[in-house]
Sequence to fold (320 residues):
Amino acid sequence: MFRYVLPLVISYLCVYVLIPIVKRWANQYHIVDEPTKRKQHKDTIPLTGGIAIFLGVNFLLFIFLGFHRMTWLFFIGSLLVVGVGVLDDWYKGRQKELSPWPKLLVQFLTATLVYWGGTRIVGVTHWFGSGGEENFWLFPHWLAFLATCLWIVGIMNMFNFIDGMDGLAAGVSIFVTLTLFFISFLKGELTIALCAMILTGGILAFLRHNFHPASIFLGDAGALFLGFSVAFLSVEGAMKGATLITFVVLILAMGVPVFDTLQVILTRLKEGRPIYVADRSHLHHRLLSLGLNQRQVIVILYLIGIGLSITSVLLFFIFG
Fold:
């Protein structure tokens, strides 16, 4: 187990050291979030926390895993989504909004790159299949490509959607990455388990500065990076030739962002508003409207996330 604890600790220290540096970058280039009526914070907050996680995690992946296909593919893919996220955050610092279409285009280009790089959902094994060829449905290329793209783009946007309160997206991400660690460990995917620990350590270091009242935010760059990381590692490991129970377990582990995204989309469609325009229809906004404060809302959503993650691991242990 030490082989997993050590990378987690090193990742934590690496990102922790980077946080003050990226804060200075945010102030220098005005990549900050200004307070508005829709937001809870009253001060100008740097939007560069995701850059610190991106730099620390990728550096350590190359250190621990070397320069091979998976690390290069992860680096290039995450660089693309962080790049468009930083551009979006730069616009936010100037009280402007980047059109959603360039962001969506880059997300699909990234998913396409990942697919052609060899990280893809190739098929599915029957729910209670033994894992033999007779129980495996190999997807045709078009379906494998579609499944991979929708999985990666969908998860990136789910994590971006939920990033609306101090400590929320990062905290929920930790429950998901720890679930990925346990599933990968049980499946014997030890490289993915190691990656999940490195990612967890980086998020924990950021979360130290992101609890309410936060001194730094993920920004779009960070939220997209976390979503991409979870999607990439799940496809590279558990989802490559997944059983249906694996799919159910991963969706359950991401239950908070999944449910939040679904109910936000349905609410906005019902009210005739574009799904990409920010509002106060998220789960945390609804809980705040009940009279709860930010810390109480975070505790509730953390407890839900922990419960779903534990349940998903138990289901995988029993049926996986």
